[in-house]
Specification:
about 325 residues; mainly alpha; 13 helices; globular
Length: about 325
Amino acid sequence: MQARPLLGALALVVLGLLAWELRWVLLVLFGAVVLAVALDVPITFLRRRLRLNRPTALMLVLAVLLVAGTWLGGLLLPELMEQIQQFTQLVPRLTQRLAQLISSLPGLSNWEKQLMEGFSLERLQPLGGQLLGMAGGAANSTVQVLLMALLAVLFALDPRSHQGLVLAATPSFYRPRMQTLLQECREALGGWLAGMTLSAVVVFLTTWAGLSLLKVPLALLSALVCGLLTFVPTIGPTAATVLPVAVALLVSPAKMAQVLVMRLIVQNVEAFLITPLLLSRTVNLLPTVALISQLCLGALLGLPGLLLALPLVVVLQVLGEEVLVKDVMDTWQKP
């Protein structure tokens, strides 16, 4: 009898080590589940409205996404590519402007000199190897994204069979409860994805309109970055503000202040009005929990972990409330 706790602890350690070794596989798998849920939301809507079977609804959703992506690409991509080229040309001017601004600040006049002294040929020699490593990482990330998309389509095509695999690995007495948990996780994750997508679209459009009215260069590129980083709450909007503010600095300090005020207004309206309104019926994440999860997974898994931190927390919050609180804590009786 005394050996059972030891064997259980050893099994947990082995499972933890195995999960860490397979962390990228598990990350791709979870990302595919998130994408599959994103596809399942419009599929379920079409099936209810048009009485379509799942394969037909999936093909229709993919066709609409392809047509919409092609149309938006043809509409926005030429201007976006032009603005990316303009941004690469503005980078030297931006660095010079920042250097001038820093040198004019008291106490930081020697900062630029110390920075230039810190660079040497020996320190720049590993740059080629770092660039090759970044190229390899980009290729690896591309393969992971393609594999994630393929798995998502397969999951969305036949979710019941994949849910059956999870139920088969569950003890028979807990299978009805597990089926309920899977459905609640799907609803919470689908609601979160739908709400964040609408929020990102609103941020993109309002930021684009605001920057265009202020006549700030690279308005489309800056608005696209702000919209995409809305999916990374707490950290993303703050990081996204850097690009439009930096570009506005090239025009004038007054323009930079105007852009900063505009972004603060949009960011606060999105954080305290739009997102809570859209997510009021799905899931409510505490800002501290969201930030800690992003920092932890970002430190462990890099950018992919940072992007998937919030969907994972949504699922874990549902499991924690239903399993840990209701099934364990609420039924725990004093001996």
